Amino acid sequence: MSAIRIIRGEYRGKSVNNKSFTLVSGFQTGAKGGFVTVQNDGHFANCPSAVRIRVDAITDYEMVNGDTVHVPAVPVTSFVAAETEEAAMNRIRERFEILKEMTCAAIDGGIRAMIVSGPPGVGKSFGVEQEIDKATLFDRIAGKRLRAEVVKGSATPIGLYQTLYKYSDENCVLVFDDCDSILVDDVALNLLKGALDSGKKRKISWLAESSTLRREGIPDSFDFKGSVIFITNLKFETMKSQKLRDHLDALQSRCHYLDLTLDTMRDKILRIKQIAKDGVLFDGYDFEPETQDAIFEFMETNQARLREMSLRMALKIADLRKLSEGNWKRLAETTCMKAA
Question: At which of 55, 78, 101 does a domain end?
Fold first, then answer.
């Protein structure tokens, strides 16, 4: 069988760079982009004997026969042009512009529910919170009760019920950020389904006895008229648990679902570049373009060892560059990278 060397690839969210495999089948394209199928041969623990390595284009791998290395010949009919960096950044920028537009629509009551899916550290929460801050500015100035809240972290079912009641008026907006624990609790999940329902009337009920609700004067049922934005790191289409997948499908059917399509390491890097190009990422650092390019080059070169590929990581490295112009790379290797 033929051997193949992956130059740049990805498997289950992890980079696969400069590794050789036994080829099972050549370059193909699917719903999520290009891939080649190779034998696992012990490369990935607890994984199938044959795995699909994601690659963006045929130039991301080489065929290896004995001592000869060559780029595979691909019929013209099967060739898929690689997306340029500029095109990819425009695609990513458009998705985040849609996120902003949909957030404004939720604040105005134009849409009542939206799920936003994307990897951590790419700025999906920042854009939503920015619009929420704008919408509640005059409430804060006037000392009024805010009509919007961002809920972060885990939420118990009773806590979720209380929060939904508190923001149940039609001009209210609730943002759940990194609250994925709701999705694995049947009671909390059913409450969320009720809030996200597309019907004209959304009735939320708590059928169990609760002294907490009684003490706070919260009824055991109410009509929810507010808007909900649920931000998650999960990509619904790739969930393997059938039970969870069924629940997630039910949520998707109830509301708008925005996938930010940052599926590869390359997409994450380009998102960071896009934010920098728009003049937002390194605002206040007074970096020359060459310095920014050096930071990006460092991140790309060491993408397999960085603890994460995110906007936060770019800022950490920028802090080190500002701290020590001559030694920032060594500092970053020590504090931002996994052990070799």
Answer: 78
